[in-house]
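seq/struct pair 1
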Amino acid sequence: MAKAKDRTKDRAAFMGPRLRRLRREMGMTQAVMAEDLGVSPSYIALMERNQRPMTADMLLKLAQVYDLDVASLAGNRGEEFAARFDGVMRDPLFADLELSPMDVEDVSQSYPAMAEAVIRLYTAYRDGQMALADHGDDAQDAPDPVAEARRFLSARRNSFPSIDDHGERIAGEIGDKFDGADNFEAYFRERHDLKVRRLPPDVMMGAVRRLDRHRSELVLDETLDKASRTFQLALQIAYLDMRETIDEALGEGGFTSENSERLARRALANYAAGSLMMPYRAFVKAAERRKYDVEALSRQFGASFEQICHRLTTLQKPGQEGAPFFFIRVDAAGNVSKRLDGAGFPFARHGGSCPLWSLHQAFTSPREILTQWVELPDGEKFFTIVRTVTAGGGAWGAPRVERAVALGCDEKHAHRLVYTQGTDLKSVKPTPIGVACRLCHRIDCAARAEPPIGRSVLPDDYRRTIAPFGFSDR
């Protein structure tokens, strides 16, 4: 009985910070929330400080007033938060502090804001270490616009609720007003007095979409497939009607160069186009119902395999979260052309990834979905699916590019995916991989391309190891 009371108390300890976070995410003061819920501002303040309990009636009222899922609001995220903090505290950086598990648990439960501050500082520290590893000894490298744009997206877990809300509103208006497969085209005609036309590639002169204000036309390459054509229409709507929302999101970036901001703007416009094609609430419900079956979702929403993968990385809207995913796209040479992180996967900032990851074997089995469990050197485990996708083509002789994409999630969410159904998750043996060779200290890896930073390489005058490099203990 005493243990049950302790667990109840622990859950209550996390409700205050969660309520405060919810209020801030919705951009409300305590007074505004109090008015919405029919209580006093002081009562809201007391609940946020855990000095008043979060009753069942109050939970239901929160869910009704703000259209939230009761299960996600009342669910015990304290364990997940505590696990994150515990993972930080187990870093070798803190090994000499002799922190007991009880100390760590006390801080995460009694002082969640302080624990969150430590997690943020640790994350910033890790980012700095990764950047040093990426740049090596060249500390005078010029700013990297691609890396800066990727950091902007990654820091927000590729989730922009304001864009999702705006896109959902526009998609709702279009769905209510116009029926049929060409509702985006009807929207352009009525709202912008623009006619949509399709022209041959030689007339398009290398463009797939062009807005011609003089002729009041939006012109598309006629060789685009249906999913690509719909995406280009949605993208133009984003640039025309969602510009202010995108600008507000960009305002938080603090970019150091014009190129960085333009790349981030382009990424957010693509995000907005996805929110129009796959409105957030409908997409989350469909994804859960279909157990994140990418091909089934592709058919339901008329989107490509890659577009669905993109959208799955964005499902972290507070109160309406889906499973968190990360996404990466590479070509046959291993060059990374796209990377989206909504799951906390520690991508290397530059260069390729681990050759043991099935992402690099996908080209031998075109269009076939390959599944794999992987484990990083720190013990983190992820489940991934990979498949090749094709860009371009559409006509004889038209250039096309084959790439491989990977979609993955943390092992604790893998049971929600159709790809793991029927698998004994406890008996799975993951493939040991690294973030990148320079950051991986697995000394017996035969696939290693270069030694890790901080390790001395042994001479092979008298002995050669099976692995490409031998390392001293120093």
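seq/struct pair 2
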Amino acid sequence: MLFWRVKPLDKILETAEKKSLKRQLGATQLTLLGIGAVIGTGIFVLTAEAGQKAGPGMMLAFVIAAVVCALAALAYSELASMVPVSGSAYTYSYGVFGEFTAWVVGWALGLEYGIGAATVCVGWSGYMNGLLAANGMALPAWLQTGYFAGGTFNLLAFLIGVAVTGLLVIGTSKSAKVNAVLVAIKIIALTVFIFLAVPAVKGDNFEPFLPGGWGSPMGGVGVLGAAASIFFAYVGFDAVSTAAEETKNPNRNIPIGLIGSLLVCTVFYLLVGYGAAGSVGAQPILGPNGMPLDPGTPAMAAACVGSEALVCSHEPLAHVMRLLGHNRIGDWIGIAAILALPSVILMMMFGQTRVFFTMSRDGLLPDGLSKVHSKFHTPHVITLITGAVVSVCAALLPVGRLADTSNSGTLLAFAMVSIGVLVLRKTQPNRHRPFRTPFAWIVCPLAVAGCLLLFVNLSMTAKITFVVWAALGLILYGLYGYRRSHLANGTSAS
């Protein structure tokens, strides 16, 4: 069903004009939105998980994940500059491959952004619960973790999801202004961490460098397993493209926002990873078979009881500072994470609402989901629904499995965007391209290969969840979208 019900790019632009969002974001705001979406749980929380899977080799995992994202970002920039409307990879797939593929990609993006937002909610609650406990105000244990993480209901994760939902309903420009402040807090915190941790690096802490090897056929461990997990630390940059319809001069500003935010974040990640692994060590806890234990398992939890190892910490950057004797700075880095992580939740939920908004506008989801608030000019219906689902998932599920599951949807979207660039180069070679992917016939195939490599190395749980989610999506498409599609029926959004 490839190239079936293809929606011409000109038609996509025409549809967007009929029910459009206000253009109010510039290059600086977009770059900050990208940084806000990227720097978050991946570096503040998942650094410990990457260390457990790969040891000091997590440095290579950061590089591998960054390279795959950089290749995909170049492809995203070309398509986003050509089709500056909401919907990200979903919209691009509709204009290149057709409706069926677009639905699959859009549904996968829902998994990326929705589960991603829930992941960050859980990561935020870990820092907040730690701060409350340190000040004698700890919540009951059953309210600190979700049902599937050994507790009952993660109250703080639920509440932060509700709060961000309210902020998104109020308006995009207001959200962007709040996000700029939160980005500044994160940058300051990471800069302080780098300034103190890098000088304390010791060569001995990098031996052995690859205690888990490169990976295993089942995925989930080693450098490639860590790269598949830490990939979550980068993927928020594509949320910039979902804001294309709300961007001033998108042909220029979208590529700047995409590539600029990714470059800034990559530099910070490499320095932070080097400082963490080299200053206090990041050697994994090994099981009876001599391989690293799987993070999030009962065996790993039991091995971490009473341990001060970096790989056991739920707040690794603050933990490194305390191990180096900077207790007060560790506390302040924890506070910075508490203040700043909501910006990542904001951008993840922003991305999902804009994708489903566009799918609704195309008739693949109910029309009511694309209603725009008369006062705030935001898609408030889908925002409220998304916020409710994210908040409930965050209240019940653990962080590590959520991150891997989110990555599975992202990798599919990245691969399809990269293939789409090459297809359009052949089918529409004369179409104006404000930004052209350099060396496209090398860059795009490498991006696809990188996405496949990381997907194979995801945990088995993430792969199974992805298949189940995809099956549910196909059922929904067959029951609703296939028959209600505006493209199929010759209708259009009103």
